[in-house]
Amino acid sequence: MKFNGTDLYAALIHELKNDLGLLSLTLDGIPQQREREHDATVDAARLLCQSVVDRLQQSLLIYKAVDQPIRPAIDAWSPQDAVHEIRDRAAALARGRIRVEAVLAPDVPEIWFFDRDLVEMALINAIHNSLAHARSMLRIEASMTEGCLALTVRDDSAGYPEHLLAGVAENAAFQATGTGLGLQFSRLIAQSHDNQGRRGELRLHNEQGAVFCLLLP
Predict the structure, then answer these.
(1) Is 61 helix (H, G, I), strand (E, B) or coil?
(2) 155 with 210: CB under 8 angstroms?
(3) Strand, coil or helix: what is 191?
(4) C-beta separation of 134 from 127 below 8 A
(5) 3-state secondary structure of 49
(6) Which of 1, 19, 189, 209 has fewest C-beta within 10 Å?
(7) Where does residue 41 fall: left (phi above 0), alpha (psi -120 to 50 degrees), or beta otherwise?
(8) Is 115 in contact with 75 (CB distance < 8 Å)?
(9) Which stretch of 12-26, 100-114, 131-145 has the lowest confidence by average pLDDT?
(10) What's the CA gap between 128 and 116, in Å, rounded?
(11) 77: helix, coil or strand?
(12) pLDDT at res. 89
């Protein structure tokens, strides 16, 4: 019997992700006691646990992408439904600490074609970053840009550091830690979406806070 370290490594990541997912559900079930120190500690543990779950999921996808390209399961989805459902998930994570909004531009079509699961994973990663740094507001937006569906996470934090903005603009590799890992993951997801030779893009900029945008052709 040949030992396959690659498959074992992937299976271990998957198992850890599932175990931490159960722990996250347990933490979600702890009621708030209206004691500031207690509630803040539980919220911090819950967010950290969910962030680790997301990081493991990202690591598994990136690990698999080393040997083969990501193949998105493209289907027809409602951008409006997606944005509102992600808004609700972000609000549940925020637990009232900051204001969470959803905004759709009037020109967004009723249907667009993309991999809903992959796109949601990328947006939730950006939302975790916003929850860690936003002062009072987080907004999920859908609009049309250059003929693409633009799904945006915007906050009122101090913004992205210059080296991250430059890395996205130059399509450079990111550090495999923290925000860099999440951005690498999101860029892979964006670029896996292709329509008649036009590939998706990840764009970042600062505008009274951090602005994370996935362009889906």
Answers:
(1) helix
(2) yes
(3) helix
(4) no
(5) helix
(6) 1
(7) alpha
(8) yes
(9) 12-26
(10) 18
(11) strand
(12) 87
| pTM exceeding 0.85 | no
Beta bridge partners of 199: 194
Give the position of tokens 């249907």.
111
pLDDT at residue 65 in the model: 60
Among 203, 185, 211, 200, which Cα is nearest to 54's?
185
**In Å, how far from its chain's centre is CA 144?**
20
Cβ pair 78, 152 in contact under 8 A:
no
Q: If you write DSSP's letter for every residue of 85-137 in order, what string do you get?
A: HHHHHHHHHHTTSSEEEEEE-TT--S-EEE-HHHHHHHHHHHHHHHHHH-SSE
Give residues with Cβ within 8 angstroms of 92, minimum separation 6. Answer: none
pLDDT, tens only, 198-217: 999 999 999 999 999 999 99
Q: Which two tokens stand for residue 148?
A: 């693409």
pLDDT at 92 over 50: yes
